Amino acid sequence: MGPVKVELLKQETQYQLMVDGKPFYIKGAGLEWGSIQSLAEHGGNAFRTWRVDNGENTGLQILDEAHKYGLMVCMGIEVARERHGFDYDDAAAVAEQKAIIKQDILALKDHPALLMWGIGNELNLRHKNPRVWDAVNDIAIMIHEVDPNHPTSTMLAGAEPEVIERVVARCPDVDLLSFQLYGEIDKLPQFLSESGYQGAYTVSEWGATGHWEAKCTDWGRPLEANSTDKASDYKNRYIDCIAADAKQCIGSFVFLWGQKQERTPTWYGVILDNGKNTESAQVMQYLWTGKWPKHRVPSLSGLTINGLSGQDSVHLIEERVYQAEVLIGNPSHQALRYRWEIMAEVDKSVESDGGDFEPSPEIIWSESTESSTAKTQFAAPSAGEYRLFVYVEDSHNNAATANLPILVKPTANVSLVGLMLDRLKKYFAISA
Questions:
Q1: CB of 241 closer than 8 Å to CB of 186
Q2: 243 with 360, same domain?
Q3: What are the C-alpha distances in Å from 325 to residues 331, 375, 395?
Q4: Fewer CB within 10 A of the terminal residue: the chain, N end or C end?
Q5: Which SS3 state, helix, strand or coil, does residue 104 take?
Q6: Alpha-carbon gap, residue 341 to 369, rounded angstroms
């Protein structure tokens, strides 16, 4: 095996990525520990990593697996973040970091599955020292010296014009920029116009509306869209904001082909932790191939507790029994399995920042049923903050998901008036 020549060319007003002389549009996903085989089966042609060694597989193992399934890799290079305490005024530390990175480049540069290098991830997030961009440019220069076959990029949080201008000014040797936007992806054309950036770019993270962008309950917990609403967002954002730019955009990496805990275990992954496909994964297959899978994921239209949705900021009283219902559409009329869980909310003291590690909260209660009714009853746990989850699974490795935050109050704090109002709410909800 030997390296492939990857070039970024400008043809009149349009940028084109070329792999061994053939046009290559990135139909990719962010993939850390997810299934490379699954991505290939859904029609993807590339994925990006955040680091060379993810703790489970080395960079070489990742590239070998990608090559096995015909995929290309934007190999992420871990570059220290200022928000984690790295000092870019420390010349010795910066030089040491560059030397370590060089060894990774030398080890992987000739692999045929290598597409490009991603130098750092969201280094602009809450940074103050502009010398970080000098370090990024020095890394790009070094890469070009030892690896003439692969372009370089750096992945930015958002696409604010002032950030783009700063990076362009201090990183002339970086070949293209990569932007990471979620709910604000529709503003990308405006940001590019205001910055004056006319180079090539990828959208290296995009997908569901971010938890920091979502509406919240009256006690401040973000509301996650159900899997059907997310799938609609994925489809519209790809068509309207990514594929629509045929001049500068050379493709994208949807986030995330796999699963991670970030506020919830279902917020960002298009694949669940048990390997089941969500509606968003099927949407990506359609967008990449023009074909839907034979067996479609059940669609959801809502999740309620005693008739109340997340928008209602659901307050419960400990030990009382409530009824949950998920509203579904099942075009194939197949038997479905309903998996219900109540999970504690992530303690605010350990909430992740910028995608960093976040511990998975405790599951307080769970129930699995196979029935024609999409309802269950549960007793509210002890006072605190929780989420009720439902997973609607079919027999074809697909699942739909929804959740809503709940605030459970202690019985002792319930006034007589409050008790009467609660009973009235239940009565009218059940009667309806």
A1: yes
A2: no
A3: 19, 4, 21
A4: C
A5: helix
A6: 12
* pLDDT reported for residue 133: 98
68: β partners = none
In this prediction, residue 418 carries a pLDDT of 59
pTM: 0.93
Residue matched to tokens 């890394």: 139
**176-180 and 152-157 strand pairing:** parallel
**Which pair of tokens denotes residue 8?**
């970024």
Q: What is the DSSP letter of 44?
A: -
- Residue 98 and residue 139 in contact, taking contact as beta carbons nearer than 8 Å: yes
The dihedral built from the CA positions of residue 428, 389, 225 and 288, taken in this order, carries a sign that is negative
168, 143 contact by CB (below 8 A): no
Q: Looking at residue 12, what is its pLDDT?
A: 85
143-191 residue pLDDT tens: 999 999 999 999 999 999 999 999 999 999 999 999 999 999 999 999 9
Count of residues in the chain: 432
In a domain, 294, yes or no: no
Residue 151 contacts by C-beta under 8 Å, 6 or more apart in sequence?
6, 7, 8, 17, 116, 117, 175, 176
What tokens does 137 get?
């440019």
Q: In the chain, how long is the greatest CA-to-CA distance?
A: 76
Which residues touch 219 (CB under 8 Å, ≥6 apart)?
A: 313, 385, 405, 407
Specify if 1 maps to a domain: no
pLDDT, tens digit (0-9, with 9 covering 90-100), for 116-148: 999 999 999 999 999 999 999 999 999 999 999
Residues 342, 264 share a domain: no
Let me know whether 249 and 368 are in one domain.
Answer: no
Separation between Cα atoms, residue 189 and residue 159, nearest integer Å: 10
Residues 6+ apart with CB under 8 A from 85: none
**Alpha helices (runs of H) in 238-323, residue ranges in sequence order:** 279-289
Distance (Å, whole) CA 360 – CA 343: 9
CA gap 175, 173 in Å, rounded: 6
> Do 336 and 374 reside in the same domain of the chain?
yes
Which residues of the chain are modeled with pLDDT < 50? Answer: 432
User: What is the structure's pLDDT at 17?
Assistant: 98
Q: Which domain holds residue 149?
A: 6-289
